[in-house]
Amino acid sequence: MNLHEIIICYGMTETSPVSFTTFTDDALQDRCTTVGRIIPHMEAKVICPETGVTLPVNTSGELCTRGYAVMEGGYWKSKAQTDEAIDAEGWMHSGDTGTIDERGFCRINGRIKDMVVRGGEKIHPVEVENCLFQMDGIHTVSVIGVPDKRFGEQVCAWVSTKNGYQISLEDIQRFCQDKIAHYKVPRYLVIVDQGDFPKTTSGKIQKNVLRERSKTMLRLT
């Protein structure tokens, strides 16, 4: 595509807003599959969300950053929210899961609150979504967890298709079976028009709304 100067970066409004970035002289594979390395004068670590323990390289957990780019005053008139986001040592807890490899390159897996836990197995929706995007006929996909009496949660895929394509749950399960672990394969499928995905004002799909709608549509409790 001749897009030689495009780079990927990652951050939050609360971190001014970039914490990690790739550079034009990074390998193409790193620029396409990671958000780069921590910027100068900033620190990063990956922790276990449950215990707060720092995890080894290439281990998925919550991404935290610390340094001059992290907001100082906190959230406006919300000390409780500020204390939840920034700990006593000044680490900003992103709420995102990711890994950092031995070279310092970071990969983002998704939001902690969006993670699906099926029978004790943690599933990152983005992994399933990336798999489904390889399937012919799929235009938009969003993967969520829905209640299940036996496993706690099951994987549900909301999908809109390109014009003229018909896709069934069996088609999706067959496509996924040799690409991702069996417990990550969607158990439920909801087909909607492209314009029927609930979105925020910034264009992000509202997974919390999808979860509530799924409970009603699929008669799950």
Unreliable stretches (pLDDT < 50, length at least 5) are none
Please name the fourth-level CATH homologous superfamily of the largest domain. Answer: Luciferase, Domain 3
Q: What would you call the structural class?
A: alpha+beta
Cα gyration radius (Å): 19 Å
Number of helices: 5
Binned strand content: 25-35%
Strand order of the largest sheet: 4-5-6-7
CATH topology of the largest domain: Luciferase, domain 3
Taken from the alpha-carbon principal axes, the silhouette is globular
* Portion of residues within helices: 10-25%
Protein name: Fatty-acid-CoA ligase
Family: Belongs to the ATP-dependent AMP-binding enzyme family.
Pfam family, one: AMP-binding
GO biological process, one term: fatty acid metabolic process
Q: Can you put this structure into words, describing what you see?
A:
By secondary structure, the chain is an alpha+beta fold. The chain has 2 domains: 9-112, Luciferase, domain 3, CATH 2.30.38; 115-217, ANL, C-terminal domain (GMP Synthetase, Chain A, domain 3, 2-Layer Sandwich), CATH 3.30.300.30. Helices cover 18% and strands 29% of the residues. The chain is built from 5 helices and 12 strands. It has helices spanning 28-33, 79-85, 125-132, 169-176, 207-217, and strands at 9-10, 20-21, 37-38, 42-47, 61-67, 92-100, 106-111, 116-118, 121-123, 138-148, 152-161, 188-191. It has a 4-stranded antiparallel β-sheet. It has a 3-stranded antiparallel β-sheet with strand order 1-2-3, with no helix packed on it. A hairpin with a 3-residue loop joins strand 10 (138-148) and strand 11. It is globular, with a radius of gyration of 19 Å. The N and C termini lie far apart (47 Å). The model has no long low-confidence stretch (mean pLDDT 96).
